[in-house]
Amino acid sequence: MIKLENQKITPIHFIPKFCSQCGHPLEKKFIEAESCERLFCFNCKTISYLNPKIVAGVIAKKDEKIFLLKRGIEPQKGAWTYPAGFVELGESVAEGAARETKEEIGLDVRVGQAIGVYSYSDAGVVVVVYRAEVIGGELHTCLETSEVKQFGASEIPWDQLAFRSTHDALNDWLKLEKEIE
Ligand SMILES: [Zn+2]
Predict the structure, then answer these.
(1) What residue numbers bound the domain in which 31 lies?
(2) Would you say residue 106 lies in a domain?
(3) Are residues 154 and 69 part of one domain?
(4) Distance, CA 41 to ligand 1 centroid (Å)?
(5) CB atoms < 10 A from the CB of 4, how many?
(6) Are 53 and 12 contacting, i.e. CB atoms less than 8 angstroms apart?
(7) Same domain, yes or no, for 95 and 40?
(8) Which of 12, 78, 115, 127 has CB 3.0 to 4.6 Å from 55, enough for a Cys bridge?
């Protein structure tokens, strides 16, 4: 039996206290059909499922160097990663990646091939990272981004990267670059 307490979830994923359908407080209930505990609304009899959120990002290259940003907010404030953020309802994952890139660093990108999908059992997100080509825009920083800088393949700040997925996606990007050369 899977107990809710045993599900390790990152802080990014809050546990809802109230039913999203009717606002009644949620309680734990063992669901026979699923052989596990779920958050359940005894008022409208709805199960609240806890699922990972989708994050989309790009590794965009221009003049043989990629764009990384220094995070201006927690988590991992001050560490480097590529532009990425939560996909919204009403957009595709690739569209979300392009929108986040525009918002965070100001560049318009044409989203290309997926580099990989980064998912870990103890993380509340699934990260999809694409290659991208810069087609316009002007670099900027914002509240979420304290600095934007271009790095060559040999200049990636491996010891100052923000997340496991940042590290893994950059590694896969490097492998792809070597295959394409
Ligand atoms: Zn309800």
Answers:
(1) 10-48
(2) yes
(3) yes
(4) 5
(5) 13
(6) yes
(7) no
(8) 127
